[in-house]
Specification:
CATH architecture of the largest domain: 3-Layer(aba) Sandwich
Number of strands: 11
Strand order of the largest sheet: 7-6-5-8-9-10-11
CATH topology of the largest domain: Rossmann fold
Number of domains: 2
């Protein structure tokens, strides 16, 4: 019964969609599509806070209006410019929820949604970030990374690659409801981004990163996040990144280890991979491997530097542990820190090629002494 129920859900077009549908009210096509959705009974809930959004927009431009209701009304009227409420803004339909949401026009939506970024990210920096394309391979830590970029609108296009599905044991580190069980990780991530910001561009690679789609995934990338578990894929990411001069960020939850790999710096390319830890011959060997060895683990993470609990866990994987243990707090923090590093790289800051350990436990232990 469980397998049958999953099969039915996975083939239901109302629940496998991941792109929001944007409708322009007042246009022939927009009005016709809205009438069609209503006649089919596909709209199950409606959210309309457009007046509040527009009031918030004018106040964000002139904060002094917050204490001047009459001034807000006048500013709103100017922004409407003679248009009616029925034809102003956009209607966004989410097919998997059956939800219709009214929103500001795209440019104004982006302006207001990023207003609280100022002055941590300036409007000019926001514009530059909106022209970038970032790839994410693996959607555990990778989902945290991708969602952080989406929340900050620190990217224009996200490419996400993962072939796996959400399982119950994933819910200790992937923030998603139980209604996501059995769904592909890429689908869950893409939907969440669309519900945060329907105008962000998301490109999906449901097979993960494979030989047949590698060129398409890396073409035009400005940065890639390695958040996958597969050794051959990790190697392929770096071979492609170095060949195309694309920076890589990788976070591991153990001791908050963050790698920043500047393959976009031409003078760094001759020094091998992962800060010189891995040479060309070894990386090609890893690219053809289908399993982790102690040598491969040491090359990527430096077994001498992992935490005591991490070292103890290694010996138990396959015996008392199904896989390497991770906690949501560490995954969320790691994804956020990797996204911060990525944002600074994308803005052209001279972020070094380096490995950092950003371990709160160690910081707290030091503060006790």
């Amino acid at each position: 019964m469980a397998f049958c129920a999953q099969f039915v859900r996975m083939n239901d077009s109302a629940t496998t969609g991941w792109r929001a549908e944007v409708l322009q009210p007042g246009s022939a096509s927009g009005d016709a599509r809205l009438a069609e959705l209503r006649s089919q009974g596909r709209i199950r809930e409606t959210w309309d806070t457009l007046e509040n959004q527009l009031a918030e927009l004018v106040i964000s431009r002139e904060p002094g209006l917050k204490q001047d209701p009459a001034g807000v009304l006048a500013a709103v009227k100017r922004e409407l410019g003679g248009r009616t409420w029925e034809t102003y803004g956009l209607r966004v339909f989410y097919p998997w929820r059956g939800a219709l949401v009214r929103l500001l026009p795209e440019a104004l939506f982006a302006e207001l949604r990023t207003n609280r970024n100022n002055n941590r990210i300036s409007p000019e920096e926001q514009r530059r970030l909106g022209q970038t394309t970032v790839g994410v391979v693996g959607l555990s830590v990778g989902a945290s990374f991708a969602l952080t970029l989406a929340m900050e609108r620190a990217v224009g296009t996200l490419r996400i690659a993962d072939f796996d599905t959400i399982e119950l044991s994933n819910l200790n580190r992937i923030r998603t409801p139980v209604t996501s069980l059995g769904l592909p990780k890429w689908l869950v991530t893409a939907r969440e981004i669309a519900e945060i910001d329907p105008f962000l561009r998301v490109e999906v690679f449901p097979d993960g990163l494979k030989s047949h789609n590698t060129n398409a995934f890396f073409e035009g990338l400005d940065l890639v996040c390695d958040a996958c578990d597969d050794l051959a894929t990790k190697a392929a990411i770096r071979i492609q990144a170095r060949g195309r001069q694309i920076p890589v960020v990788m976070d591991t939850s153990d001791r908050g280890m963050l790698d920043i790999e500047r393959y976009d710096w031409p003078d760094h390319i001759p020094h091998g991979y992962l800060h010189g830890r891995i040479d060309e011959q070894m990386m090609l060997l890893f690219a053809g491997s289908n399993r982790w060895t102690s040598d491969a683990l040491d090359a990527f993470v430096d077994l001498g530097q992992i935490s005591e609990r991490g070292r103890a866990s290694l010996a138990e994987v396959g015996r008392t542990l199904v896989a390497w243990p991770q906690l949501y707090g560490e995954v969320a923090a790691g994804g956020a820190l990797a996204a911060q590093a990525a944002r600074r790289i994308l803005l052209g800051e001279s972020i070094p090629d380096t490995r950092l350990y950003l371990d709160l436990d160690e910081q707290l232990a030091e503060s006790l002494h």
